[in-house]
Amino acid sequence: MDMIAYVAPGDPIDVDVIKNTASLDLYNAYLNASQTYVPSLSIVDGFLIGGTSDHASFWFNGFKAIFPFEDSDQYSPYI
Fold first, then answer.
1. I need a labelling partner for 65 at 20 to 30 A (CA). Which of 2, 6, 24, 27 fits?
2. How far apart are CA 60 and CA 33, in angstroms?
């Protein structure tokens, strides 16, 4: 998980998740756990706005990975 705490004024609290097709079972496990333990938390499909994060090295080496992110549209202005 990376950069998950910033919420822009007026922005709903959610988690954007970046995934690939090879990691869908991992994403589904994450989604099921979040629905079980934090049912009020919205999980939405995220997209990369530039660069990558730690998940990319896993993908490039054939491992499954997901990237929960604070918000693809409203990321922190402090980074």
1. 6
2. 26
Residue position matching structure tokens 């998740």: 17
3-state secondary structure of 25: helix
Query: Each residue of 50-71: b (16+ CB within 10 Å) or e?
Result: eeeeebeebbeeeeebbbbbbb
Give the range of the structural domain holding residue 31, as residue numbers without chain letter.
14-69
Instruction: Residue 31: count other Cβ atoms within 10 Å of its Cβ.
Output: 15
Q: Which two tokens stand for residue 64?
A: 């499954």
Task: List helix spans (H) across 11-54.
Answer: 24-37
| pLDDT tens-digit map of 19-70 | 999 999 999 999 999 999 999 999 999 877 766 777 889 999 999 999 888 7
Name the DSSP letter for residue 75.
-
Total domains, the chain: 1
With respect to residue 52, please indicate whether it lies within any of the assigned structural domains.
yes
